[in-house]
Amino acid sequence: MKRYLIFSVLFGALWCGVHGIIDIQNFLFGMLLGFFVIVLLKNLYSFEEDVSFIKVINKIPKKILFFIVLTIEVIKANIILAKIVLSPRLNITPGTIEYHLNVKTDTGITVIANTISLTPGTITLDVSTDKSMLYIHSIQADEPSKICGNIQKLEKYVLEAFE
């Protein structure tokens, strides 16, 4: 129940920020709405460990940093992909790459898999049954170590922000 209260308070603050009106009625409405959303979706999003308010607050800067890094990586990948598509010769070497995961939680695996799929030119195909490998399709699979190195950089931020 403590977790629900913590996240309800965060939803209340988020609601005020998105709505643009900061007053007690708006905050309480956001809290109430957040509480009902949490209760309705609790079976879908189970917590893997106890969550404290301090822990949630401490991870906010790390999540912001992750989204900044992700945005930069997506922009860089778009530029590279545009060069490939606009070049006179379509010089691509598509293929599947196996990537060994460092993240262990379902949340971490989901975030890194979706991050890979958001980056143009790559898409996550599958997760191994033991959740230790990702199978990724890339349009430039001629240098798998380079692709894995880029994913490792992103995974470092995922580990800090989501695990």
Automatic annotation (TrEMBL):
The chain crosses the membrane at residues 30-45, 65-86. It is a multi-pass membrane protein. Keywords: Cell membrane, Membrane, Transmembrane, Transmembrane helix. The keyword Transferase does not apply. It is found in: Cell membrane. GO terms for cellular component: plasma membrane. GO terms for molecular function: monoatomic cation transmembrane transporter activity. Signal peptide: none annotated. InterPro entries: Cation_antiport_E. PANTHER family: NA(+)/H(+) ANTIPORTER SUBUNIT E1 (PTHR34584), NA(+)_H(+) ANTIPORTER SUBUNIT E1 (PTHR34584:SF1). This is Na+/H+ antiporter subunit E. It comes from Methanosalsum natronophilum.
